[in-house]
Design a protein that fits this description.
Blueprint lengths: L27 H10 L3 H12 L10 E6 L2 E6 L3 H4 L4 E7 L2 E6 L5 H14 L4 H16 L20
Antiparallel strand pairs: 1-2, 2-4, 3-4
Helix pairs in contact: 1-2, 4-5
Length: 161
């Protein structure tokens, strides 16, 4: 697994696979409902279709580096073992993938140790956990990649009384 971050030319694939533009005429009420799923109508349609039936024949890797410009992020399959780790929250990004978000106070080195401990405990998600550990290790050891912790903004609905 190679973690080099190279700047590619052009726009990245919107859905992580080949796609094309189409024109569709839809009723206004359907458009309103689609926008409640996602502000981007194409993404809303893809989300709804993939909820009913995930794409066939595409085995997604448990964890991978996804580039945007000269930066990259780790994108994972949202598995229970990751969700159970202290201070970890998975943020869905579409196509059955998620970003790993750490709560305040948690660090990447702590995450790597927690992942290694979870692997040692065993379980069915070892392959996915190991894939994240491998990416973190290679990034940490790389002379061409630097790792930065960033903050994402998460809005949470308040409970109604």
């Amino acid at each position: 697994m190679h973690v080099a971050v190279r700047q590619r030319r052009g726009r990245p694939a919107k859905y992580g696979r080949p796609a094309r533009a189409v024109n569709v005429t839809l009723p206004d009420d359907v458009l309103d409902r689609l926008r409640r799923v996602d502000a981007d109508l194409g993404s809303a349609i893809v989300k709804l279709v993939e909820r009913r039936q995930p794409p066939r024949g595409r085995r997604t890797r448990p964890a991978e580096v996804t580039q945007y410009g000269s930066h990259a992020v780790i994108v994972v399959r949202p598995i229970k073992a990751l969700k159970k780790l202290p201070g970890v929250q998975l943020v869905p990004v579409g196509n059955g993938r998620a970003l790993i978000s750490l709560t305040n106070g948690r660090t990447v080195p702590q995450l790597e140790l927690d992942l290694r401990d979870a692997i040692d405990r065993g379980g069915e998600d070892r392959e996915s956990l190991q894939a994240v550990v491998d990416i973190l290790r290679q990034s940490r050891r790389s002379h061409t990649v630097s790792m930065e912790e960033r903050t994402i903004i998460v809005l949470e609905a308040k409970r109604q009384r």
